[in-house]
Amino acid sequence: MDLMQETQVTTTLFSGICPARLRIFSFTLSAGSVPQAESPQQTLLFRILSASTTRIFIFFKSDRTASKIIFATPIPALKTCLIFSRMPAMNTQLPQRYANRASVNTIREVFDYIRKYRGKTFVLKIEDALMDHPLFPLLMKDIVQLHATGIRLIIVTGTRATIEKHLAIAKLYTRVENGIRITPRAAMAHVKLAAMEVVQTIIAHLSAGKVNGIMGNWVRARSMGVCDGTDYKFTGLVERVQSDIVVKLMDQDFIPVLYNIGMNATGDCYNLNSDHIARQVCLDLSVEKLFFIRAQDAIPATGLALPPGSQVHPDGSIFSNMDLGHVDDLMARHGDRLTLENQTALSCAKDVINRPDGVKRVHIIDGRKEGRLLQEVFSSIGGGTLIYGNRYAHIRQAGLNDIAEILHLLDGYVKKGNLVERSAADIKDQISAYHIYAVDHAVYGCGALYELGDGWAEIGAIAVNEAYKSKGIGHGLVEYLIREAADKGIHTLFLLTTQAADWFFEFGFVWASLSDLPDSRQQNYNLERNSRVLLLKLRDDQPANGEGIQ
Predict the structure, then answer these.
(1) What is the domain class of 395-537 according to CATH?
(2) Whether the Cβ atoms of residue 431 and residue 446 lie closer than 8 Å to each other
(3) CATH 3.40.1160.10 spans which residues of the chain?
(4) Angle between the 185-208 and 160-169 helix axes, to the nearest 10 degrees?
(5) Which end of the chain has a smaller Cβ tally under 10 Å, C or N?
(6) pTM of the prediction?
(7) CATH number for region 118-140+152-287
(8) 402: part of which helix (H) or strand (E)?
């Protein structure tokens, strides 16, 4: 079929799908190039998937339509081809104006994300199976771009596929038990060789982008030993990462590259799980995001009973957003249907998020999809599975056993004059009003919701462990108490503060006076402290004070 015949067939096909008027654009492609539209009146976003068998994805946006058309016929390099775009039958100036507006909004969104993440640390765990994919160089260019925006990066390399290749060449066989490779002494030389091959490939791509990647053995490990009667030989467990060295390297604008070899105190080498290295990096450093960049799709959703509240992508194939509760539900109900790789990724995500100063987000993405990494970082859409923490998951009602911890938290604030002093008896008498932020039996924050009746309640005793301030614990406690008050039918919240009024304004509290409070609270007001009064109305159908409330 010649070009003209193909044009007629394709025009007929697209006319049936898209009855709106068609516009035809002609392009000349060279291998790996990105075509430019001949008409300046359109905005087209192209994705070149392969230099030899190119498929062009056309995304066209107008004021009313957003169409995605796939030109599925392989496009020969250095030949002229025709691209078809759905066009609304209207003034051609309108699509350009709206396209420009969309482009500007996209640019603004990207700048917002750049400001948000500049100076933050991302950990990228990259599977070595991606290195043979045609788009791997583009993935590495995207990583270079992330670094150029001021994001601090740490790369952890996966090595499984390369180890398999080297062992096959050497005709060595190693057993895998419970997803863990048993590494005999004879295999260790090949494991090290595979690790170096992967690291050198990564660093070479970084160097091509004028970025300094640096490898080093900053992982301390120990032997896995014998488990359930199986001796795992030179397979090891991650103990810690020398975080001080890694941080200093990032301060000097390096990208540290960690690999699957760890050493013990005497210099013995062990073969480690790279996912566990990435997890330990997140536990030992302050990390904003962890990415699992794989040679497979994100967490599959097809055929599974979806946890309530979880989200899937429009095609229903993969999970889009999951909190830790959804992860627990998925693993409990469908753990046997998840691959070992997916189980490990989800388990690591839980470990690094489920702590007061933990990772904010974990992204599981398919590195074979062009631009997927940048899409996850710089847009609100994303194309992989995003896992995040439930900020209220660690908040619970306090019990009598928590009184000592509450007193300890309050003590520092009392000494600074920020809070009034409370005795153990005071807290015991009102223990049902107290809520705490606790992780693994350690209490990091507290707050109280005192109900006064007639739809009124007071927030007080907000305190956070000094070492965990700026981690969002206090913010989460106040939001939780506001939500609790609303659930209980409270119409007006108030609080008294001497120094933190500006912080409470962030939650919607406004200035008030003592006369705005219920009579019972006015009578107990401490005139010597002269605390400021703030109000938050949760319902507008009630008066601001207690008058007229039955």
Answers:
(1) alpha beta
(2) no
(3) 118-140+152-287
(4) 130
(5) C
(6) 0.67
(7) 3.40.1160.10
(8) none
